[in-house]
Amino acid sequence: MTKLPNIGKPAENALKTIGFTTIEQVSTLDKATLSKMHGVGPKAIKILEQTLADHNLTFQNRFDNDEIPNTEFAVICSLNCDNAPKRRMIRDYLIAAASGNQQLLETILSDAFRWIIPGKLPVEDREVFIDTILQKQKNLSTLEIQSILTHGKEGSAHGILTTKNGDKIYFSDIIQFKSNQKDAPIIEVTSFVIQ
Prior knowledge:
Layout: H1 9-17, H2 23-26, H3 31-35, H4 42-54, E1 74-76, H5 85-99, H6 102-108, E2 109-116, H7 126-135, E3 140-151, E4 154-163, E5 168-177, E6 186-194
Parallel strand pairs: 1-3, 2-6
Antiparallel strand pairs: 3-4, 4-5, 5-6
Helix pairs in contact: 5-6
C-alpha cells in the first residue's frame, strides 16, 4: 500500500475523515466525487492523478448510464445499480434526504409515508417528513453509503455522513416499500442514528 502524497493538510484531512490513507484507496473514487469533498481542490487532484499514474492506477470512471442525483457533497458508494431498481431507489432516497432534494423525495416516497426513529413519535406524513429533513440540513462534505440490501418489499442501508467540519453521523435505515413491484414507492423508513 502506498501512502498519500503531499497534497496539503485540507485535502489529506478530507480523505482521512472517510478512512482513505493510501493511493490505492483513492483509485476507487472518480474525480467528480473527489472534487466535491471539502478541502480537496484542483491542485490536490492533479497531484493524486500523477501519483496514481506513477503506480499504474487511475481514478474510476463515473457510470454515465446510472445517473445519481446531483449534490454539492461527495457521494461514495457503489453506483452501478442497473439490475437492482429498489437498490437504486434506496440510494437516491439517502442522497435526497441528505441533500434536501424535495422534488426527488416526493417522487420516491409514498403519500402515506411514515418515518420512525425509535424512542420518538413517528412522523406520519410525507410532507411533514420533508419539512423536518429540510430543517435539519447539515453542511456535508461526504455521504458514504456502505451497504444497500433489498429483498421483496424490504430493504436496508447504512453509512456515514461527514460534515465539512469533520463531525460524523452514523446511520442505519430499514426500509419498507409499498409492494414488491420494482417501482413501488417507499412507504416506511425506520432510522437509527448515532451522532
